[in-house]
Amino acid sequence: MKYFTNINCDVIRGPKILSLRLAPVFLALALAIMLPQALYAVDAENCLMCHRFRGLARVDKEGDYRLFYVDETLFSRGPHARVSCKGCHADIEKIPHDDAKQVDCLRSCHIEEPTREIIFTHAKVSETLEDSVHAPIEKDGTSRSFPEDFPGCKNCHDIPLFRPISLFKTVRPGVSEHAINRCLVCHSDEHFTRYYYSHVTTRLHKARDPREVIDMCSTCHADTALARRHKLPDVVSSYFETYHGKAVLLGSSLAPDCLDCHARQGSVHEMRSATDPRSSVHPDNRPATCSTADCHHSATPALASFDVHASRDMSTHTLEFGVGLFFVIMTLGILLPILTLNILGLIRELLPSHQAEREIERLVKLAEKKAALEGGILRFTGAQRIQHAFLVTVFLVLCLTGFPMKFPNAPWAPVVYDLFGGINGAPIVHRVAGVALLVGFALHIVLILLGVKRSLAQKDKLSLRAWVGAILALPMIPKWRDMKDLIAFTKYVFFLSPRRPNYGRFCWKEKLEYLGLFWGIPLLGVTGILLWAESISSHVFPGWVLNVVYLAHTYESLLAVAHITLVHIPGVLGRPGVSPLSSMVLNGKIAPRALAEEHGGEITDWSPAEEVKL
Amino acid sequence: MSHKASLSKKFLLLLHVGIVSTLLVGASTWLTLYLIGTLGDPFAGKGVQTPDPDVFNSVVALTEKKVARYLGEWEFLEPKLPGHFHHVGRWYQSDKWNFCINCHGQTPHSRSPQARAFLNMHNLFISCQVCHVREQKETEHTRFGWTDMTNGQLCSSPDMAKHPWGEYGAKIVPLKGSEESPQAVVLKEEEVFAEEFRKRMDELDDQQKVIGNKFIHRRCVETPVRCSNCHNSEEAFLPYKALGYSSERAAFLMSAEVVDLVARYETFHLPTLLKTDEPMEEGTGEKTK
Question: pTM for this one?
Answer without folding.
Answer: 0.76
